Amino acid sequence: MMRPILAIVGPTATGKTKLSIALAKKLKGEIISCDSMQFYKGLDIGTAKVRKEEMEGITHHLIDILEPDSEFSVAIYQEIVRKKIAELEEKNITPILVGGSGLYISSVLYDYRFDGQKRDDEIESQYDDYSTKELAELLKEVNPHLAEKTDLKNRRRLLRALQNQEEDIEFTADNPFYDNAIVIGLDMDRETLYERIDKRVDLMIEEGLEVEAKKLYDDYFETQAAMAIGYKEFFHYFTGKISKEEAIDQIKKNSRHYAKRQLTWFRNKFDCFWIMVDPDHFEKAIEEALLISNYL
């Protein structure tokens, strides 16, 4: 029987990393990162990047592959990951895609094509079904650096920004690229999730997030990597616009909002097997995921 391609998705702080390692150990798998900010070297604390000792011997791909001043695109990611999936399948290893960057995962699992620039009228018709808010969230996924400079309430400017991307994305998400892919979505009671996010940020501060953010600020201020939550908020503190306490509060607030956007994306764009996670009984989530993984 063909091994499935697994994808573990969901909001930040729901336990995706922990679940992926447990499944990889059980299913002879290797993990492919789908977190657009974990690609960058030096962005460790703020992205909750998995540590070497936490990997438990499981091979992880596409972590620390870029310098912070490198530009990266969804199209390049799609090409790299599809080749990696083919390599793993050839070795009879289960590919496990893990992360919260919805567009990156979508580009791999669905028939997303990158066909070059289109005319203005083609761009408009392509996004007819998207609200202005949805266009703004899409731009944040495709190019967070450009999103920072764009009026996210102006539909025409959003369309222009999307047109000016290196590649033009043709959305064909109704057509799965693989017929053996299983997507597992993790969700959590909202109050519990937000508490976990706040505690995670507090732990990041204790571990030295401010120092990490200052290095990014000093060396790579005008880069795509610098737009990540957990770093950009500190930049306002470094310039004296807000206090350190306000920066930390903004990180928590933005992280909670991001988790909400992630959940919306995955519920709208993916055909998932959803698991409600209880952090105090995480083994139950592992058991459910193993049952789902043997679905094919």
Structural write-up:
The protein is α/β, with parallel strands linked by helices and 296 residues long. It has 2 domains: 5-112 and 172-293, Rossmann fold (3-Layer(aba) Sandwich), CATH 3.40.50.300; 113-171, Histone, subunit A. 49% of the residues lie in helices and 11% in strands. It has helices spanning 16-27, 74-90, 102-109, 120-126, 132-142, 144-148, 155-163, 190-207, 209-220, 232-238, 244-269, 282-293; strands spanning 5-9, 29-33, 60-61, 94-98, 113-114, 169-170, 181-188, 273-277. The strands form 2 sheets. Strands 3-2-4-1-7-8 form a 6-stranded parallel beta sheet, sandwiched between helices. Strands 5-6 form a two-stranded antiparallel sheet. Helix 5 runs parallel beside helix 7 and helix 9 (209-220) packs across helix 10 (232-238). The chain is globular. The protein starts with a strand and ends with a helix. The model has no long low-confidence stretch (mean pLDDT 88).
Low-confidence stretches: none
Report the mean per-residue pLDDT as an integer. Answer: 88
Instruction: Tell me the CATH architecture of the largest domain.
Output: 3-Layer(aba) Sandwich
Q: Looking at this structure, what is the CATH superfamily of the largest domain?
A: P-loop containing nucleotide triphosphate hydrolases
As for the CATH topology of the largest domain, it is Rossmann fold
How would you summarize what this structure contains?
With 296 residues, this protein is an alpha/beta fold. The chain has helices at 16-27, 74-90, 102-109, 120-126, 132-142, 144-148, 155-163, 190-207, 209-220, 232-238, 244-269, 282-293; strands at 5-9, 29-33, 60-61, 94-98, 113-114, 169-170, 181-188, 273-277. 39% of the residues are buried.
